[in-house]
Amino acid sequence: MKMHSQHRPDVVSLLQPETTLERQLLRDEPFLKGLLWGKPRFGHPEGSVLRHVREVLDNIDRLPVDDSTRERLRLIAFAHDTFKYREKSGYPRDWSMHHGVLARQYMQQYTADEGVLKVLQWHDEAFYAWRCIHIRLSPVEGWKRLQRLIERLGDELQLFYYFFKCDTETGDKKQEPLLWFEREVMNIR
Hints:
Strand content: under 5%
Helix content: 55-70%
Order of helices and strands: HHHHHHHHHHH
Structural class: mainly alpha
Oligomer: single chain
CATH class: Mainly Alpha
């Protein structure tokens, strides 16, 4: 279903793109479709991905980071949940169709920044590790997931943490996963 322009939110005014790449993404139809997708639900009372991205960008603006880190975080924010509309639901879960994997695949045409791509792909993994330990009561699996995440991120652990913090401190998301990550993971600030 194509949304008529008079009914489409003004994504440029709402997200205020700052780079050529951000502006380019906001002209890309599959990307726009993902930004406009969503309805209010637990964790995302704001509804659309677009409105969630705005909240994440506001959190990024409050971080005391250099311009380069801020630009990378903004790019991650723009794309991190934009491909939820393509994610396949069902059981067992097809992790190759997770929205983070889809975001990474899509964004590879726009950036070669491996740190950005890693964070896009794995942006929900700390939450999944926490959930294994504290909700599913599978601590061995949860700690293994966390350790694999840290290994995968390597030198991009700080970038991941910044994004995890900015993404988690939105809507009505539970803060326990973030607090747990901050307690358990060394070498983040």
